[in-house]
Design brief:
169 residues, alpha+beta, Nucleoside Triphosphate Pyrophosphohydrolase, 37% strand, globular
Length: 169
């Protein structure tokens, strides 16, 4: 059974733009396989938006391949779901709601090429293995800056939930 974490307050009325995403919690050695942005200094879990017709497993396999250059070997249990509510960044007056599901999974050791979106390449996103406590401290530092990316709050909350729950170190 998984937990539900909520970020922001659900608004009422107006247009709601919804997005569904999947994320992989991938243990690797003494840490987690995460995506690091040297430009921002934060860490995020591999994964991204689910396309029409994709299952969570297919979407996560595609995203892990693109962002980490690895094949998804095992698609495990749903650990936590995060629902975010905020003003949409692109549609004036609209609200944005994103549901991100975090799954325990495993990946192959074999590494392939990354296939990054333009914004991901601009941020220098790189797959790295990092201890959860170091990723958490880095994200908390980014959250204290003037303009942290919206995803950093979510990823920080999930890292905190995983470490406080003893699921990762």
């Amino acid at each position: 059974m998984s937990d539900l974490l909520v970020i922001g307050v659900q608004g009422h009325g107006g247009q709601v733009i919804k997005r569904a995403a999947v994320k992989g919690v991938i243990r690797s050695g003494e840490g987690l396989l995460m995506i690091h942005s040297p430009t921002i200094g934060d860490y995020k879990f591999p994964g991204g938006g689910r396309r029409d017709g994709e299952t969570d497993e297919l979407a996560l396999a595609r995203e892990v391949g693109e962002e980490c250059g690895r094949a998804l070997n095992g698609f495990g249990e749903l650990l936590v779901t995060v629902v975010e509510h905020r003003q949409d960044a692109f549609e004036p007056g609209a609200r944005f709601e994103m549901e991100s599901r975090y799954y325990a999974c495993t990946v192959s050791d074999r590494r392939g090429d990354l296939v990054l979106d333009e914004y991901e390449a601009t941020l220098g996103l790189t797959p790295v293995t990092v201890p959860a406590d170091i990723a958490l401290r880095a994200n908390e530092a980014v959250m204290r800056t003037d303009h942290p990316p919206a995803w950093t709050a979510r990823e920080t909350q999930v890292l905190r939930w995983l470490t406080e729950g003893g699921l990762v170190r």
